[in-house]
Design goal:
mainly alpha, 77% helix, 0% strand, extended
Length: 172
């Protein structure tokens, strides 16, 4: 039983540390977002210098394999140099090209995260739509569709009248 308690305690400690680290990480992202917002002022201003910001702030902080992949020169696909490559070299080219794509995606993910913390999307206050309003809008939409329809295989006039009756009932 002693071993179970020690194992449980280790589990609790690991989870507690993970939660604390997560909270610290969120706090760091929020601080970075505040600093970015203070410096750039607007999201548009930051987007104007996206490439330079990524090179200065993000690239030095990520895994070095990404920087190495981005620094690797590759011939353009289907260029004369590319076409001169043998099968093994083309496999290497594909591998390095995928590494470059992965690096760009990683950099863009971090940039987007920073932008999200710096300039969070404004939350729109959504008005709760009542069932009555939803029905009114739906019936009005169906009535408009009946008015525009020309090739229906049912009685449009009777259908439109029935929809009008439903709308009248709902509006009471």
């Amino acid at each position: 039983m002693q071993n179970t308690n020690a194992s449980y305690q280790a589990t609790v400690t690991a989870c507690t540390n993970a939660v604390r680290q997560d909270i610290n990480t969120v706090n760091k992202w929020e601080l970075a977002g505040s600093e970015v917002r203070l410096f750039f002022g607007t999201e548009a201003a930051m987007l104007e210098v996206k490439a330079q910001f990524i090179a200065d702030a993000i690239l030095p902080a990520i895994d070095k394999r990404h920087a190495k992949a981005l620094a690797t020169e590759l011939p353009r696909k289907n260029s004369k140099e590319f076409n001169a490559l043998d099968a093994g070299q083309r496999d290497t080219w594909e591998y390095v090209n995928q590494a470059k794509k992965d690096a760009r995606a990683t950099l863009n993910t971090y940039f987007s995260r920073i932008v999200g913390y710096a300039f969070p999307a404004e939350k729109k206050e959504s008005e709760t739509t009542s069932l009555k309003t939803k029905i009114q809008e739906g019936i009005a939409d169906f009535i408009k569709k009946c008015e525009k329809a020309t090739d229906a295989d049912f009685d449009l006039v009777a259908t439109k009248q029935a929809l009008q009756n439903v709308l009248t009932t709902v509006n009471k």
